[in-house]
Amino acid sequence: MAWNCDTDGLLPVSKAKEIILGAINVVKEIEEVSLDDALNRVLAVDVSSPINVPAYDNSAMDGYALRHEDLTNTSQFQLVGKSFAGNAFSHRIEPGECVRIMTGAELPKGADTVIMQENAEVEGDSVSFTVAVDKGEAVRPKGDDIREGASVLQSGKKLSPIDIGLLASLGCDKVEVYRKIKVAVFSTGDELLSVGEAARSDRIFDTNRPMLKAMLTSLGAEVIDLGIIPDDRALIQQTFERADQEADCVITSGGVSVGEADYTKEVLDEYGDIDFWKLAIKPGKPLAFGRLKKSVFFGLPGNPVSSAVTFDQIATPALKCMAGQLPSSGIQLQAEANSVFRKRPGRADYQRATFFTNDEGLLCVQSAGSQSSGVLSCFSNSNCYALIEQERGRVEIGENLTILPFSSLIQSSD
Ligand SMILES: Nc1nc2c(c(=O)[nH]1)N[C@H]1C(S)=C(S)[C@@H](COP(=O)(O)OP(=O)(O)OC[C@H]3O[C@@H](n4cnc5c(N)ncnc54)[C@H](O)[C@@H]3O)O[C@H]1N2
Ligand code: MOO
């Protein structure tokens, strides 16, 4: 499994993903949660519908229900009653009769068509219609949306608000989901301060841990926050042992490159079976991955942009798979470069950028500015990656580029 970067060059991103996906296990434990607690949980069973939706033929409009064939014989219908949602007209309608009907109300027996009230003229009990309609007009037939027994949602689906609505329409008040994956996170580095501590001119705030915790929460994971661990061998070892005991996955940031003042590598060499890779990705070249005694481990690079991009592009697909989610591929679009994108061949570059439609309706993309892996502000102002492939060099204005719109993990879209 080891990939020796020194002799074989940089490890391609696709190869790294393949190795990682081959090394992880999907959680097995299933739990039942109420529909109110099901948002963003991963469905552990296939769901088929216990009922027809809608449960009965009903009207899509406020209007008049009638037999379509009668429209060829008469222009005057006799109004014989009313059908309200939840309070239906109980008799069969006979030839030449119509029933006043409200949106959602059950269609009277015998009726097959509804004409909206805007197209009706009413005089006492006599109704005539001003337009011709097709049979079945404004009728929502029983089972039109979902037939009883039909497959509705597949195991592995992360439940969205729409899925919650769909399950509610079936009357499901509980769903079986995989338990949340537990992910332990900590940062290493003597230069780090926790947010809330007083700023110091010789320290930086721990940016990665709150950012990674937020991304993990968006993913639906249970986060175990182990804080900032100083550069102390015994403390780092203890923290790895605890994290490994408590979590399915352990994520750290920093200390995976070639720096000296760091014990992470030493501890990991003893405690786990970890490979230190040099990935063909920018930002985020140094990355560690492997197994601890019980859990899997991702050592993300310390620079905040590198940490976020490697989490998003490398760790996220693996964590989704671990959580039982079906594989999904994000949207890729082609856009025209509206600015120069500087790049040297050698690594796939996930540059932060903004896409937009120009006055001619053409999809364009503009660099978000600094591509330094310490500059989060440009990341925050962007809405996509401009993905410049491994072997490609500088991209000139007017050339085509692949863009990857950010997922909700990176950016809120509204
Ligand atoms: N001689 C070389 N130097 C470096 C290489 C290399 O190949 N040869 N790789 C560079 C690349 S690429 C990256 S990325 C960084 C990654 O280094 P580490 O993962 O070992 O991270 P650190 O050295 O600990 O920190 C890098 C940088 O990030 C800051 N940092 C660390 N943790 C946090 C945090 N939690 N919140 C905010 N900022 C953090 C740290 O202060 C450093 O500025 O190495 C390059 N060097
Ligand atoms: O990951 Mo480093 O430059 O690619 O920040």
TrEMBL record:
This is Molybdopterin molybdenumtransferase. Its EC number is 2.10.1.1. CDD domains: MoeA. GO terms for biological process: Mo-molybdopterin cofactor biosynthetic process. The keyword Transmembrane does not apply. It catalyses: adenylyl-molybdopterin + molybdate = Mo-molybdopterin + AMP + H(+). Its cofactor is Mg(2+). Belongs to the MoeA family. Keywords: Magnesium, Metal-binding, Molybdenum, Molybdenum cofactor biosynthesis, Transferase. Catalyzes the insertion of molybdate into adenylated molybdopterin with the concomitant release of AMP. One of its GO terms (cellular component) is cytosol. It is an enzyme of class 2 (transferase). Pathway: Cofactor biosynthesis; molybdopterin biosynthesis. Transmembrane segments: none annotated. It comes from Brumicola blandensis. Residues 184-321 form the MoaB/Mog domain. InterPro entries: MoaB/Mog-like_dom_sf, MoaB/Mog_dom, MoCF_biosynth_CS, MoeA-like, MoeA_C_domain_IV, MoeA_C_domain_IV_sf, MoeA_linker/N, MoeA_linker/N_sf.
